[in-house]
Design goal:
Layout: E1 26-30, H1 36-46, E2 50-55, H2 59-68, E3 73-74, H3 78-82, E4 89-92, H4 99-108, E5 112-116, H5 123-136, E6 140-143, H6 145-148, H7 151-161, E7 168-176, H8 191-194, H9 197-200, H10 202-213, E8 218-226, E9 239-246, E10 251-257, E11 271-276, E12 279-284, E13 298-303, E14 307-311, H11 319-330, H12 338-353, E15 356-357
Helix pairs in contact: 4-5, 10-12
Length: 363
């Protein structure tokens, strides 16, 4: 089961839904620093992928990964994986600032790359990644898990595609997380390594804003960051928010923070509100406040025909992973376009760069 108290190691499991025959899509994992690698590999194996091998220079991470995926082989090094002709994709959750460099090496080796969010930490890295995609023709896919690996988020997208709320006008997201500082590695508190809160958690939210509004681009109208309550970690942003105006005139707003209280049943009460011309949708992604044991997957819909509550946990699945596998095999873009993946982090980086530093934050 996914660890509900710790977002860093939250690794959803779905029902197997293979899109390929056994052995048709082989992948490996390199860079095991963040626990999201478990969810990434779960999704790919449930869609029919075969996890052949894995590597990280840290033996502790190697041991932890082996316990989760005992059938995979521990590689002697990154080179062994990059030189393996059987491997079509490399999944990685390295230190955030090192994810781009790993991706460049993976794509140069002729393989597709699937990285944890945030996929990189600077606009310079983004330019390098875009250039590498253009030169190699390989994919730089991103695990924006708060949309692609959350059933309420998948279902909300399906409702919008069916016209349930008309044209989407605004998306408002809340992404609180539990800090759990004692269990975090040192790099998590160094801004050049994690990128800042609007880059890190914020990239999730911008992905969702772009997706649900159907926008291709947008402008950051205002963004803010602060370190309100953690002076012992002077480079940590423990709060951030952002307002975006999209190219189709829809708007988006999100707030992210590290203030989930210890008494909450979940690592974060993630919620998303989608306003349309003919109705609205609310997602309570991971829990229903005050009702323990219900789990996540709560979706509320109101439109001209109905007011409905859906509990979709365990019923929708995670189609992104099967689509990604088929995209890699067929060179299509049905799971997520490359430009969308890059645009979400581009706007997050701009929001982080231009953020107003609120009182109590480091200067």
């Amino acid at each position: 089961m996914a660890e509900i108290s710790d977002g860093a190691n939250y690794a959803p499991k779905g029902k197997p839904a293979p899109v390929v025959k056994p052995g048709e899509f082989v992948f490996s994992a390199v860079g095991l620093y963040h626990g999201h690698i478990f969810g990434m590999c779960n999704g790919l194996t449930e869609a029919g992928g075969v996890l052949k091998s894995y590597y990280d220079p840290n033996p502790v991470y190697m041991k932890n990964f082996a316990a989760r995926f005992p059938d995979a082989k521990a590689a002697s090094g990154e080179k062994e994986i990059l030189d393996d002709p059987d491997i079509k994709l490399v999944a990685g959750a390295d230190i955030t600032s090192r994810r781009c460099a790993l991706g460049l090496r993976v794509m140069a080796a002729g393989k597709d790359y699937f990285t944890d969010k945030a996929p990189l930490t600077s606009l310079e890295q983004l330019a390098d990644a875009r250039d590498a995609v253009k030169k190699t023709g390989r994919k730089y896919a991103v695990y924006y898990s708060e949309r692609i690996h959350v059933e309420s988020a998948v279902f909300a997208g399906q409702l919008i595609e069916q016209g349930a709320i008309g044209r989407v006008l605004q998306v408002i997201g809340f992404g609180p997380h539990r800090l759990g500082a004692a269990g975090r590695p040192d790099w998590f508190f160094i801004k050049k390594d994690y990128g800042g809160i609007l880059c890190d958690i914020g990239s999730h939210n911008i992905d969702q804003i772009l997706y649900y509004t159907g926008a291709k681009d947008g402008k950051v109208a205002r963004s803010q960051i602060a370190n309100y309550h953690h002076p012992q970690y002077p480079e940590l942003d423990d709060f951030g928010d952002c307002q975006i105006v999209l190219d189709n005139h829809a708007t988006g707003y999100f707030r992210v923070d590290w203030f989930t209280p210890d008494g909450l049943q979940m690592w974060g009460d993630g919620r998303l509100f989608i306003l349309g011309t003919e109705g609205f949708i609310e997602q309570r992604k991971y829990m229903n406040l005050g009702f323990k044991g219900q789990g996540g997957g709560h979706v509320f819909l109101a439109n001209g025909k109905e007011e409905t509550y859906y509990h979709v946990e365990g019923k929708i699945g995670f189609p992104y992973f099967g689509k990604l596998i088929l995209d890699c095999l067929n060179r299509t873009e049905n799971a997520m376009t490359q430009e969308h993946a890059f645009k979400a982090i581009e706007l997050a980086l701009i929001a982080q760069r231009d953020a107003v530093v609120l009182e109590g934050a480091p200067r």
